[in-house]
Structure formats: structure tokens, C-alpha cells
Amino acid sequence: MIRRYLVSTRGTSRGVRSNSLPIKSHDCSSRGNEGQTNGVGWWVVFRVRGSAQALALESLELNVWRCLLYSRKVHLSLVRNFQRSCSHYRDVTSPFNLFNSFNYLTLALVSTIILMPGRTMAQRPLGTDVSGYQPSINWTNVHNAGVAFAWAKATEGTGYVNPYFTAQEAGAKNVGIYIGAYHYARPSLHPNITGSSSADSEAAYFWSIAGTYVKPGGTYLVPMLDWEDPAVTGGSFTTASLSAWVNEWCNAVSNYAHAAGMTIKPVVYTGTWYSNPANGYPGLNSSVTNWPDWIAAYPNNPQPQTGGPSSSYPWPSWYIWQYADTNWSGGDADVYHYDLASFVQTFVIGGGGPIISQQPTNVTIGVGSNAVFRVGVTGATPLYYQWRFDSADILGATNSTYSRTNVQLADGGSYSVVVSNSLSSVTSTNAVLTVLSPPVITTQPQSVSVTVGQGASLSVAAQGTAPLSYQWLFNSNNIAAATNASLIFASAQSANYGLYSVVVSNRLGRMASSNALLAVIATAAWGDSSWGQTNGPVSLTNVIAVAGGAWHSLALRADGTVLAWGDDINGQCDVPAGLNNALAIAAGGYHSLAIRSDGRVTAWGNNDYGQSSVPAGLGQVIGVGAGAWHSLVLGRDGTVTAWGDNSFGQCNVPAGLSAVVAVAAGGNHSLALRADGTVAAWGDNTGADGTFAGESVLPEGLNTAVGIAAGDYHSLAVRADGTVVGWGDDSQGQIDVPPGLSNVVAVAAGGAHSLALQRDGTVLAWGANWNSQCNLPGLTNVVAVSAGEDHSMALVAGNVPALRLLSPARQGIQFSALVQSLYRKTYAFDSKPTANSSIWTAFSTNSGNGALLLFADPNATTPAKYYRLRQW
């Protein structure tokens, strides 16, 4: 046969010595009841063969200390089985005799020993309730029997106090049993709900005696109301009145506790023989189920660990069950429905993890006032607090209250507190601090610079009492429907250029922002910006022409002023004072040029080779170009003048060169475009590596050119059919015109890269790209391009110059005038004989070249003639 014995190993030492197994235990602190273990146990299985007299194969030594038996960690059946199995050794008449007689037992009946883990279960904690009928209680024995909680009767009605109450409370507490006080209700003597002879008077009487035993700290239990007065029959005693009596007593005691800083719910003890109206008494109704219940019911064979009362009326379930009227204390035997942790959380005052009984509340105050947040908590002490602002810990805020003094707008937000003890932690709900204030702008609108057609936005950030209203202004005038915190421009145009501000208001006041400039710039620049040459100024508006030098940039505004930025070591960005009538510009290696409205040229910047020393008497200039160290201009008469560095013959203008309509200056070479579409080139022919490149050697068949450009060591031309041809240095692919490129109206040549502007306003780039000078920024509607050493520039449509006939002149019978033109625009020059005539005669129609166009009437012989200029 096989016998199994469960032995607790909590606090024990286990080991196997030869053929014996000593099992010792020194843990006498368990509250577990008989037949249960508080931890992992071991089943000791004895496989017994033959009789006691015949078998003596192996021995088992069991040394079990007396305290192990008292703590109920060894099931008593172990001892009883030992008695039966070992009675042939000596007379063992009781479990205690067994352990008193032997330090250990040697059994010669065992052939096989098997150890296996025993099954442990979540235990229902046992309890007891006592009264004056138990004057002397051995609480140590009660504790060792596994009792975890107890209630002692304190009072009855308004005239009885249990004389043993204080001793019972102290005794239970001293051995570690949770202890509470209860009151035996006498509604038959005090039937009123409030006033005299009432539930209130009994609650007051109970509190006067037992109030000092209702306190936090993890030892004391909530009060219990013993509801079983048999004298409440007939008359005014009804289910409703008695239920109201119970509720009043519980509420009154709860209020006493709340005044002392605790939040509790008393437990109501009764039996369904008394609480169910069907059993002859008025009973109770469901209004009392707000309070936890304790049901008395005594079955014939109670199973406290698995059973329960058959009914808990009017409660839907039960918390505590009084299953017998005798137990270890001499009082009643009770059991809690769930585990010990749940019991502590439900009934021990401040005995569990923290529970927030009062959440922090929202606070609304004005700026400069003080805000106070509070939290109410129950739980085992000590309790620890950490207040938080918008989920971040507040340094030093570790009390149950938190004060914020001299509150400002920035203090508005969510406040919460984390409360913890040794068992757990809990976080409160958020309390919102609302700071009443007129609007305060915390982030002003910032100036923005964008190119024409790009998106732009202006925004403001403000604090103040909600709701906040917004009104944007443009140049001090309200903008219709602009009433959000942000002002959005899907596609900024020149007309949007100006100062913007916003007024923020609420019911308490208003505040105006500072001005922000929206600069809608018609230029774009990209590539190398080591000298800031791509960072145009905010004032870069109303631009009609751009020019890229080696490491600096120029822009011509419609009002005749010139802007310059980038490398200024040689003063190439120091625009001369008074230059406010410029018609065209050019940027060289380290110097700059401009044509004035009177046809004269102004130069500034480096002058090492005299490139900034304009020849005396030079006038009637309509075109200009700047090379690395030399300057080139086109006269009104179609001739070319050059000065500056001539080391490579770049200033040796070919003899007889005339009828020129455009010029371009490269690194050390020069180009001129004649009216008949042919090109002249002179100067350097070497490449970047010093070998022959041929930038001044024209390709065969170039006789339909309509535009030219010169780079450091390469040259470009646009043919009349919109195709492009390049020649000279190709070390960086700068003359490898993209296959299929057509519809080109203008080109620009940089240090070693090339740009082409197409008729649809798009731009293409090729050649050197080590500074991203060929990485186009996605521009559209471009009307002009220019290239510096390692950067690129473009002028976006949006600031079309006002059509004006500039520098009108009459020489003999010829009348001529200039116009500032843009690529992708067409210009027509017309005349009529009298002011009243409706018939206009066209002299010429030309495409814009991004510079000055010369229009002429070769037969201005009449005494008066009227001219007009058209653009489309």
C-alpha cells in the first residue's frame, strides 16, 4: 500500500543522508489552519512492503519539532498514520505523545521514498468574534490555530459596555490578529432614526467607547453592527424603517471616522433568518447592501474553505460567513470569502495599499493667486506622496497637499499625485489648474522670406483664459476671415509683401503682436553658400534682374537700386551710395558693374587689373558683362569696349566688331552676339587643368544664336530653334548639353556648370555639382537665370518691371529707346503720326533677353510722332 503525508518545507531544511531523510521545521509563525500549508510542501510517500516484523530494509528519520505541529504545518493525519504504522514499537496514544516520546522515529517498513511537490491553494482567512461571554482568551493559541481576524463586542444599545473589550482588543493586537469593535444594535429600545432613542444615539454611544479603536495603521478593523435584536416585531417596525435604522447607524459611524481623517464602511452582521422578511421578522431591503455583509449560517458539516451560506439576503453575495458558534477562542468561528490580501484591503483601516478617497479637484484662479491641491488617502502607513505637473515630478512636492503660490499662466495645466506605501502605489486623477488671464502673447509672429509662388505661414502663440480670438492685420488693416492662430499663404505673391500683425483677445482683454515682415522674394539661389552668396536679404523684393559673381550675388530692383550680398573682401558688395537709377547689372570674379539710366557705367570692388576703373568718356552703354578680372560693355551703337586684365587677350576686342546686341565675359575670355546670329569670341583657350580647351574657338555653323553665356573655361549659346551648343572645357561635363534639350530661351555659365531656362519657365542644370549648384529647388515660372562660381540664381515671375521707354534719343532721323526686358516675354515697338490717330505702326517685335533691349525708328522725319511699347 502507499501512504502520503504532506509536510511543509517553509522555513525548513531538507537533505538526504544515506538511507534516511531528516525533515525539520522551526517556523511557528504561520496563521494557516489545520490541514493547510503556507508555502510549498512536500508529499512524503511511503511504499510499505510486507509486515513490520519481516521487513527492515531501509530507515526513515523524521525529526519534527513540536512547534511544527502547533503551527499546523504538518497535517495531523501524519501523526495518526504514524501511530497506526509504528504502534508495534511502543504505545503511542496521542499525537503529542508521539513527539514527546521520540526525537525522531525510525521506521523499518520503508522500501521506497518518493518526494513530490504538494499542491498549495489560496486560503480563505479564518476569524472569530467574541464578547463578554469570553472573559479569558488565550490569544496565542487562537493565533496559532490560524485565526487572522477578530471582532470584539464593545457596546450594546446605549447602556452596556463589554467589561473585557479593552483586554480583548489588546490581546488580539499583541499576537498579530487584526481586531475590530462591534456594537449590538437595540432598535427595539431606540426605534427612532435620528434624535433621541435612535440609531444616531446608539452610534454616538458606540463611538464614545470604541472610537479610539477605529484608527488607521494597519491593525484595526472597521466597526461591525450586530443586527439581530429579536424584539423588533410588529408595530412600527417595518422593513423600510429597520433598513433606514441600519443605514443611519452606519452613516453616522462613517461620519465620525471621516471627521477623524478616515474613510470607512462598517460591516453589517446578521443572518437570513433575521434579514429575510419571509422568515417572520421585518427584515431588511436592498438599501443596506451599500455596506459589506457578514452572514451567520451553521450547516451540519461546514466547509469554511470551500462552502458558504446558502443565502445572503438581501445582499447578492457575502463577505464574511459565521459558520459555527464555537471555535478556538470560545467565541464564534468565521471565514472571509476571499484571500487575506482582499480582506486587508476591504476591512483593515489603512491596512492595504493606498486607496484615494478624495481626488484632487480642479482649481480656477487669477494670475498672482495661490492654488492648493489636496488628496485624501487610506492605506497602510507610512504613506509617501509625489505631486506631478503635466506628468513630470515636482521637486519637493511630497506632502498630502500641494500649494502653488503666485500662479502665472505657465502654471496652468494638469496636476496629479502618486501615493505609495510598502504594498503598492496609486495615481490620482488629474486636477486642472485654470489660470484666468487676459491674453499674453508668448511667441510673436516671425518674419518670413519666401520666393514668389511658395507657401508661407505666420503664427502666434498666446496664453490666457479660453476661448482666445484672433484677428490678423496686413499693413495695419484687418484681413477678412483671418481669425486663426496661423495665417497661411498657399502661394505667396508680390502683393502679399508687407507687415503683418495679429490681435489676440478674450473676455478679459486684448493684446496686439509685434509686426512680422512677409518678404515675397522673386529670386532663388542654391549651391555653395560659404560666403552667404545664396542667403538673400529680406529686402530682396521687386527684383527685375540677378547676377552671380564668383562668391557674391547682385540683384536689381525695379526702383533702380542694387542689392549685394556674399563675399565682400574686395568691396564687391559695397554698392556705391547714390546708385538708385541702375538699369542693368553684372557680377564678376571680385568686382561688380551697373549701367545707369544716363548710359554711364558704375564699377566697384577689386581693381587689381583696373577692371573697376571705367574708361573716361564711356557712355551710351546698353549692355554689360564682368569676367574674373576684366569688364566688357556694349554701346548703343553696337560696339564693344573692354578693360581690365588682358593677360589672355580677353580685352582685345576684334577689329571691326559691330552690330553687337549682347556681350558676355567669362573667366579669361569674352563673347559678343551680333544681330545676324553670329558670335565673336576672344581671349583664353585653356581649361581648368591648363591644357587647351578652346572656349574662344567657335563651333562650326553657329550662325543662328540668340543668346550667349561665358563661364570660367567654357562657353554656351542658344540657337534660334531653342537648342543649346557648348564648347570649351568639359572636365566637369559642363558642355554636355542634356539630350533632347529644346525650347530654351536663355543660358548661364558658372565656374564649371551650366543652366538653361526653357520657354515654359523651368530650369535645367548640368556640369559640376560638388556644392549642389545643379540640384534645382523645384522652381517654376522662372524668367531669368544666372550662375556664379559654384552657385546658381533664378528670377521668378511676379515682379515684372513697369513698361517704360528708357533713355530716348534722336540722332539724325533715327529715334531709339531702351526697355528693361525679361526672358520669356515679347516686346513690340509701335508708332503713330498723331495723338488722335488710332492706327499704330509696328517697327520691331523682339523677345526679351533679361537685359536692356534697344528699339529704334530709322525714319523719324515727321515734326511729331507718338511711340508705345507693348509686352506679352
| Multimerization state | single chain
CATH domain class of the largest domain: Mainly Beta
Radius of gyration, in angstroms, nearest whole number: 52 Å
Strand order of the largest sheet: 8-9-11-12-13-14-15-16
So, CATH architecture of the largest domain?
A: 7 Propeller
* Regions with little confidence, pLDDT below 50 for 5+ residues: 1-121
Q: CATH homologous superfamily of the largest domain, by name?
A: Regulator of chromosome condensation 1/beta-lactamase-inhibitor protein II
Question: Count of helical segments?
Answer: 9
The average pLDDT score comes to 83
Summarize the structure.
This protein is mainly beta.
Question: Please, could you describe this protein's structure?
Answer:
With 872 residues, the chain is mostly beta strands. It has 6 domains: 2-117, no CATH class; 126-347, Glycosidases (TIM Barrel, Alpha-Beta Barrel); 355-436, Sandwich (Immunoglobulin-like); 440-518, Immunoglobulins (Immunoglobulin-like); 522-796, Methylamine Dehydrogenase, Chain H; 806-871, Sandwich (Immunoglobulin-like), CATH 2.60.40. Helix content is 10%, strand content 37%. The strands form 19 sheets. The chain has an 8-stranded mixed beta barrel, surrounded by 4 helices. Strands 18, 21, 22, 24, 25 and 26 form a 6-stranded mixed beta sheet that branches. Strands 28, 31, 32, 34, 35 and 36 form a 6-stranded mixed beta sheet that branches. The longest helix is centred in the N-terminal third of the chain and has 21 residues, at 239-259.
